[in-house]
Amino acid sequence: MSAKIGIIGGSGFYSMLEDPQFMAVESDYGETSDDIAVGTINGKEVAFIPRHAAEHTITPQNVPYRANIDVMSKLGVKRIIATNAVGSLKAEYAPGDFVIFDQFVNMTSCRNDTFYDKQVVAHVSTADPYCSELRSIASSEAKTLGINVHDAGTVVVVEGPRFSTRAESRFFRAQGFDVINMTQYPEAALAREKGICYVGIGIVTDYDAGLEGDSGIKPVSADIINEVFAKSIEKMHKLVMRIIEATPDTASCSCSTALDGAIMTKHIR
Q1: Range of the domain at 28
Q2: Is 206 a catalytic residue?
Q3: Residue 187 domain flag
């Protein structure tokens, strides 16, 4: 089995696949989050991995990011559409809004975040970590669907699984970050190391630890996230379907050349 497009997100995407086949694909980095489902969407072969497993049993810091991306690459995936729940750090990024990430800031500390940590050294540029072509398509299709979407946003990625303290949230806002999440790193960076086009799309579910000056905004809880996410997931499914349909067979971006000149090891024995 093979696929050119991959989806990483919640288990609800299973229902989008036509005639899905479930398989355990061998990874060089251990087991994936769950079995891979490969089927079709709008006539295109698509592979799907539920990031936290089908029953949401894997915490953010324990997601097997390398295995998931490695298997996508082995299946022939050239483009990944990733969906996330995110907390807002700014009033204008309101619950229910969608965000097309253009930058990430890594605040995690204990994740395996590269494929080049043994024998081969590579310094891959992540100056612009998200695929420009997929970002443009996602933004355009979201607007067509009438979704309130932000064309860009910096996502700060924290270790989790706990939510931020008020002091941490205040610090992140002071840095100018837009939204907060627990799973965009190292997923996006690993896709870049494989030369895979990657777009991250966030559903804003909450205002993190609240908003300064507005005592009526409560800190985030799991119940709040689930409630807002449930109201928005149908929109996300429609958006992903339109992105898949609108994505051309041949990419016009430079994601596939990310490794050009990046490998420093000259002689591999």
Answers
A1: 5-257
A2: yes
A3: yes
